[in-house]
Structures
1.
Amino acid sequence: MITRRDLFKVAGVGAVALAVAPGAVKPSFGAPKKISIEDSLKEHLGVGLSALKESNLIHIKAPTIAESGANVPVQVKANIPVDQVQALYIFADANFNPWVTTVEFSPMNGEVFFATRIKLAKTSPVRAVIKMKDGSLLAAAKEVKVTVGGCG
Amino acid sequence: MSRLGRAIVRVPRRISKGQVFKVQMVITHPMETGLRKDKKTGKVIPAHYITKVEFLFNGQKVTTLHTGPGVSKNPYFAIMMKATESGTLTIKYEDNKGGKWEKSVKINVS
């Protein structure tokens, strides 16, 4: 005899099956996974967040509050001679893919400067990491508040 | 987008020798992340973004940018450059769908 309790059980299993089904199908479409800042740093720099040295030589100019996350102006300047710098990396922590850009400098640049506009999914720190020619890494971060995300 | 891949480059009109000047550029490009869905069809819009921008002055490499989908639509880039002689600044850029473009500007050093 089917009791009320049994009926709930069956209904429950059905609901679970339904909930699982779309999840099981998704990976076959190659749905991308959110990359954490830690993994992204490891991929591009070979080290994690803890290995970065905070430096006051790097200045990030970005708005404290961005109205739209689709278009956040970021300017990075560093008081380091350009011939000692190999590359500049920009990361946005909360983005789906935190890596934004890599800039390779040459002595012809004259100074370490780069400006662009980036997308931010939500409020997160924007990080600038400078890789020196001797292999050391200098970093700076600035928190940008986002009212409307721009990565959707 | 018929204007896809067009760029506007701005450099100062007059540059004195040894001066460090700013090079600004804007490329017309959608910079699709590949995560957005078309609101009408519900299909994912495929990723389409600039992957590499190269600044060459008289054939010599000045700056190379590697960019991902995290850069805004119609990307803006600015770099500093030091010129010791007049010449041509060539900017080569490409996207992940095989699009390749080039833009040149003259730089007059007096």
2.
Amino acid sequence: MLEFRNVTKRFETPGGQEVNVLQDVSFTIEDDEFCVVVGPSGCGKSTLLNLALGLIPASVGEVIHNGKTVNSIVSSDVGYITQDANLLPWSTVLENIMSPLEIRGVPKNERREKAMEWAVAVGLEKFVDFYPGQLSGGMQKRCSIARTMVYDPAMIYMDEPFGPLDAITRTILQETLLNLWQSKRKTILFITHDLVEAIALGDTVVVMHGQPGMVKTRIPIPLSRPREIRHLAASSEFVELHTKIWSYLEPAANQQEENELI
Amino acid sequence: MSTQMQQRSSTALDGEVIAPKTSTRSQRDRKWRIKVTIGQVTAIVLILAIWQLVSGRLIATFLISSPTGVAKDFVDLIQTKTMWQDILTTSQELVLGYGIGVIFGIAVGVLMGSVKFLSDVFEPIIAGINGIPKIALAPLFLLWFGLGIWSKVAQASMIVFFVMYYNVYMGMLSISPMLVKLFQVMGAKRGYVARKVVLPSLSVPIFAGLKASVPFAMIGVIVGEFIAADRGVGYFVLQATQQFDSAGLFSGILVMVAMVLIGMGIVGFAQKRVLYWQKVGNGR
């Protein structure tokens, strides 16, 4: 379980001014919940993740991970999937997937076996001896997902992981992710600026916007699982949810439009 | 000619004719390479021919010698025992100067790249010292380290140090902080990050430095030998110059070039071994 309790994050600008990036953010992610945070860029979504991972401290309030206040880098039982795949370019796909097991001192044979299993699970079995530079963006992303799943963390943080991919690849990877999540229940905090993605994946969607970023609402997504993402957008339930969440974002959009016209 | 035309029109009509297209491409590549080689050989032959023709006719032989003169002298030279002693001395100076410069350059670069306080304090100082034309220090090194090989070693390692230091320091700064954070979240300790993330990231700038340093080390050594020495290839060249023996001078330079090329070859060989992943990555 992860809880943000009245979290405010303040940064100092190079000019010495203090700017609030997040203001009084409170919400809870239950075990095995797929929680998606959606909002426009600049609303502090990624800052939220950095706080949860203990990469930066909160200015006010606290983040509580499994009953403990986060005050240094969280490195037990959590996974982190970033916007770029962040693979080691000098290691093969299999070596990349094996690296967290190596860190955990898993014996070599077992490492290979498990990594191979996950390479198969994400559809990279034919590419295990390839170097990341030889793979497409989607395949690199698959590799980074396998690298996280292989050590079976209970909680996974994902920061716009499918952002840089094309629409088709993104849909396929979303389906892969949901299938994996379906079979291996995990707590997921997923950050995105894509409303469709948020509804398609999440159990709950947390809507954020503003500068400083604030949580506007938290909406449960009652769509049944397993979901077939490629046909989801046509269903009336989906359209309804989309309209509802958009209504929260619309004032922010209008505001932003004005700001950008100035 | 006509078959090539046919192939071209068939590929234009349907994109499925892949095999003949790739074969003509590799053929074209090979033809291009042959053309380039012919061009290079022609250029070299032409330069040598002009040199040969001009020598003794337009410009005095003692000034520029001639290709045949240099060739003859070079063959004679590498059969003498003294030349090999000179080569041995210069090689020693080169290897020691290069080695010491590389080790210190990497060490200081890593240190400065990892401790912000040190880099804030020392970076401007190092930049200042680097501003000294290092050749101007040769007399000082002579004073400190004597007439033997160590003044040359010092001169070479001084130059190599800065080349390596800047490459490694910049390399340290360009290591992806995201990658390091990711591995920390995965549970990696400092040692693991250093071995598996930092060191491989540095291998690229280190090899860039190693390659650039070889000719710089040679400059350091030769300058040292020019200032004061009683053996070495640089000493030989200086002697030849003072005796207006231009064939000997050019032969000595040929020996230096050969030594630098051998050094570059060794580094290049090691680079291919260590940076295997880079080539694979780029050849997508």
